[in-house]
Amino acid sequence: MRARRLEELYRGYIDCLNAQDWDRLGDYVGDDVHYNGKHVGLSGYRAMLERDYREIPDLRFDIDLLVANETHVASVLAFDCSPKGEFLGLAVNGRKVAFSENVFYEFRDGKIVNVRSLLDKLAVEAQIAR
Q1: What's the whole-model pTM score?
Q2: Three-state DSSP class for residue 47
């Protein structure tokens, strides 16, 4: 798949997440998707995202940086949101926090099959320590 087409697919995926259009998630994510080395499958991936939105009602995925080749997308996602209760093991309790996620996606046959994600927990810790 051409890199430009993969970028377009990825932007569609982010739009799907932001719309919480879970019925379309399978248009972008493969049935056997892995997340951070663990097989979660499409249903597990969807459950993880639905839980994220329950715990962070104002969650929005904003692309800050996007690089693609024929099989992979690397992205920095920016977040500015108010998680309820604990987030990343930290007592955020509705406070507004800004942080980023560095995430790498592997695509096969036009769908995400592997996701590697790293959240900037230090940024959140610094904000709630104030």
Answers
A1: 0.94
A2: helix
